[in-house]
Design a protein that fits this description.
It is built from 4 helices and 8 strands. The protein has one domain: Alpha-Beta Complex (Maf protein). Strands 1, 2, 3, 4, 5, 6, 7 and 8 form an 8-stranded mixed sheet that branches. By secondary structure, it is an alpha+beta fold.
């Protein structure tokens, strides 16, 4: 039976985010089990993401999870992330406001359509994907890792790249590799021409930190 001390709670109910996190973390062959809120036997309320930065929102998610964890679940390592796109021609939008970009709660399809409408007519379609991950150990010490990747927004979504919960997955393209951002993960590092995957880089740093600082 896996000890709670070796269990990581990834603080999300978003299946797409969990899948993306586990795909990288499990590849690192760490002897830890990764679960999400949906694996708990009780409900944890959604966190109000009122921060002005990705780091502030990730820390709020950590605090929310720690507040509602029960019993031995408090022994778990908790990891939370906040990530999003900053589009150059739109003055860094949507940033932390992805889900409420237009002022109301939006679905994946609505975000995609809204993005393409806002950027229509701009020659500069460059964008940056920001990934901020916070790891919280049971003694309430928080480690923050932030990484960034560059690319462009396509003129229309790539249908084969659509994944529930990750609207920009079908829009974010890496010209220097002629690949969708998420496809770069399957490319050997030596063939990436030095390109850094923000989420992968942050997760690798978190995994190294856990190996060095937790039993």
């Amino acid at each position: 039976m896996t000890s709670k001390k070796n269990t990581i709670l990834f603080a999300t109910k978003n299946p797409g985010k969990l899948k993306e996190f586990k795909k990288t973390f499990d590849r690192l062959n760490r002897n830890r089990k990764v679960i999400s809120f949906t694996d708990l036997h009780y409900d944890i309320p959604d966190c109000e993401e009122t921060g002005n930065t990705f780091e502030e929102n990730a820390l709020l998610k950590i605090q929310n999870a720690r507040h509602y964890l029960r019993g031995t679940d408090k022994e778990m390592i908790v990891i939370a992330d906040d990530s999003g796109m900053k589009i150059a021609s739109l003055n860094g939008e949507p940033g932390v406001l992805t889900r409420r970009w237009n002022g109301s709660k939006m679905s994946d399809d609505e975000i995609i359509d809204y993005c393409l409408e806002k950027i229509k007519g701009y020659n500069d379609r460059s964008a940056s994907y920001i990934s901020c991950i916070v790891v919280s150990t049971p003694n309430n010490f928080n480690k923050v890792i932030t990484s960034e990747s560059n690319g462009v927004i396509l003129q229309e979504p790539k249908n084969s790249s659509i994944m529930k919960g990750l609207p920009f997955r079908s829009l974010f393209f890496v010209p220097i590799l002629n690949l969708m951002f998420h496809e770069v993960r399957d490319l050997p590092v030596e063939k990436r021409n030095g390109y850094i995957l923000a989420h992968e880089s942050a997760i690798e740093q978190i995994a190294t930190y856990l190996d060095s600082n937790t039993a």
